[in-house]
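hey can u run this one w/ copper (II) ion bound, need the structure tokens asap thx
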Amino acid sequence: DQAQILSGKPTKVWRYAGNLLKGPPNALTASVEGYLGPLMRFVKGQKIRIRLRNDLPEETITHWHGLHVPMLMDGHPMAAIDPGQTYVYEFEMRNRASMYFYHPHTHEATATQVYRGLAGAIIVEDEEERALGLPAGEFEIPLIIQDRSFDDDNRLAYGGDMHTSMFGFYGDRILVNGRPDLRLEVASRAYRLRLLNGSNARIYKLCWDDGTPLTVIGVDGGLLEKPETRPYVMLGPAERVDLFVDFSGRAVGSTLVMRSGRFYGMIPPMAQRMMGSELMVGDDYPLFTARVTRATSDSPKLPEKLSTIRRRRQEEIANPNDPIPIAITMAHMAMLLNGRSYDHEDIQPRERIPVDTAQLIEIFHEHGQMGMGGMGMGGAGMGRMGMMRGHMGGGMGMMGGGMGGGMGMMAMMSMAHPIHLHGQPFEIVGRAFDDGDAEAYASIREGFIDSGLKDTVLVAPGERVRIVKPFDDFKGRFMYHCHNLEHEDAGMMREFLVE
Ligand code: C2O
Ligand code: CU
Ligand code: CU
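ok here u go:
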């Protein structure tokens, strides 16, 4: 399909088309003009049937990110269909109200398929939420943030070299709902802005240009128990944040700009130089603008209490003293989980999980093993390292400089990873900063909303995060992986076998 993204020539895109839309058209569907899939709206308890017909020149499969569905409805890469084929999904909506994400999960082609435009949002509603009277209709605006690059002919351009698969793709134009420089026209009242980071790899530090704090009412898996105020919110790929934004009292004609604020340390400095984007991760740049165009006096109030979250008690956790590890490791220029890359045949003992249990899981960077010896890199490994040195050219100089501080080479390569688990959302029960650049960490640490239910958690360099994740109802294989899509495609993905 063609999409008009920049002015001038249209670009070729792939898209989810069709008659999926439920309810009234809204800001998302109105503004995408051929880029991004339609917004889907469902109600908790609803029985759903979706037919996916593959009109692409390659195989694909769609995953409903964040939804609690049986394995065969989850868009497992093994279920991918060939061009011309159809896959029928049927499931019941078990999720709480929230905004979810749908995108391809094609083996080694998720990043490129999402990049071309295959992505969209799902909004689920439920009774609990409806009773709150939050801003709705035109006052509720889903916003999908992505970064893209264009060539001189306005065509979408994707790097795709070795650095892309190592660090992820970073574009130099920000698109919101498929548009550059998105401007929202708002009334002077409260809005609900529902943001989804639909980027392949880019991490944002959301903040308002005038320093107004953000009022957070929800995250990936639905509403928080009560609103939380933050100077900024960190949003990694696939994460969502639900904001209550009150424009009351703002003059007609005034603007409020959402920016990504300055931060440090989420990606190695040398990677920044190699990735070739003019928009560095951690730079300060605008995302979209809201302009007050009309005055109004009726505006819903922010409820003090939003919801009740079911948390597992200690005795409900199957392994309270023995967390299942998810170690972020790096070897041979590939990012791995627990030292392994994706292999459908290879299920490790700790990846077998009894159904209807809640498990404690610890996600951490495996610094201890990142030394040369621990990585299992003998002479052969060093050979590869030498090769890497060659590839990295000028970048190594900077790295060498940074290594004086006692950090090993692998620690210098450490970056933030948005770790995602399929199936039910999880609680974040601990987040600790073990080691690393404390100053860089200070530029992000107030931006995590760990009090809500999550399906993706950003694990910054030096961090260790503990989650409690239920595996209820469905047996089968459920993936866990890095949602830096280039990392996912490069094998930074594993499966739990729920049995
Ligand atoms: Cu949003 Cu397995 O992915
Ligand atoms: Cu998912
Ligand atoms: Cu990663």
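The longest strand covers residues 140-150. anyway lmk if its weird
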